[in-house]
Amino acid sequence: MQIAIDTSTGTASLALVKDGAMLAELTWRCGQDHTVHLLPNLAHLLRQAGVTLESANCIIVAKGPGSYNGLRVGLSTAKGLAFSLDIPLIGISTLEAEAYQYAGDGLPVCVIQNAGRGEIAAAIYQEKGSQWFQTAAEHITTAKALCEQVKDRTIFCGEVTAALAGYIKETVEENAVIISSISHWRRAGYLAELGLRRFQAGDFDNPATLQPLYLRAPAITQAKHR
Fold first, then answer.
1. Among 30-39, 102-111, 176-185, which is the least confidently predicted range?
2. Most buried of the four, 38, 109, 124, 218, by CB within 10 Å?
3. How high does pLDDT run on average in the chain?
4. Is the pLDDT confidence value at 185 over 60?
């Protein structure tokens, strides 16, 4: 059984997968309360599925980009589980996990995340044949700069606000396919599916060196001393 953990943003998700099939999945709004919700919800999910933590053979975690607090909680929990259970750990890009649910459409998938300061984090993926590619790496940009890159019909998903959706439609016009806000939630089941591919290939991360993917340094200043 594989456990997938995503606490990248204010929307968190967990999934339990065994033999390529979903056992249980939970997605919820947690705000900044990742520490409070994560382990109790994992225990609840294990009970619902009728399995034990010890039956896990891999931990799959969303490594960012995302909030500093959320990523720290998710990765530290994932590392602790991997160490204590002595099982592999696999880190997957949060943006890739969100984009992957639209892979079957065959179009480029541009996934967007709010980065604050009037900017967005974005990456673009596409499935061609049976291969899933990243065509633009995770980066900080603006809506204007991102729309200027779009030359083909593209799916836009993620944290696309009404204002941003309107701007994209106005700028990109018929090349924009906007996913509705109701259906855009990240689901840990897709994170698990991406991680399972690497698990089957024996491609693991080192728990001691796996780090969150921060696209911007934290806004921390040195304390002033008299």
1. 176-185
2. 109
3. 93
4. yes
Residue 129's pLDDT band, with cuts at 50, 70 and 90, is confident
Return the bridge partners of 125, or none.
Answer: 109, 134
SS3 track for the chain: CEEEEECCCCEEEEEEEECCEEEEEEEEECCCCHHHHHHHHHHHHHHHHCCCHHHCCEEEEECCCCCHHHHHHHHHHHHHHHHHHCCCEEEECHHHHHHHHHHHHCCCEEEEEEEECCEEEEEEEEEECCEEEEEEEEEEECHHHHHHHCCCCEEEEECCCHHHHHHHHHHHHHHEEECCCCCCCCCHHHHHHHHHHHHHCCCCECCCCCCCCCCCCCCCCCCCCC
Which CATH number fits the domain 95-178, given the four candidates 3.30.420.40, 3.90.1150.10, 2.60.120.10, 3.40.50.880? 3.30.420.40
Structure tokens at 123: 């990456």
Residue bearing tokens 């290939």: 201
Res 225 pLDDT > 60: no
CATH superfamily of the 2-94+186-200 domain: ATPase, nucleotide binding domain (3.30.420.40)
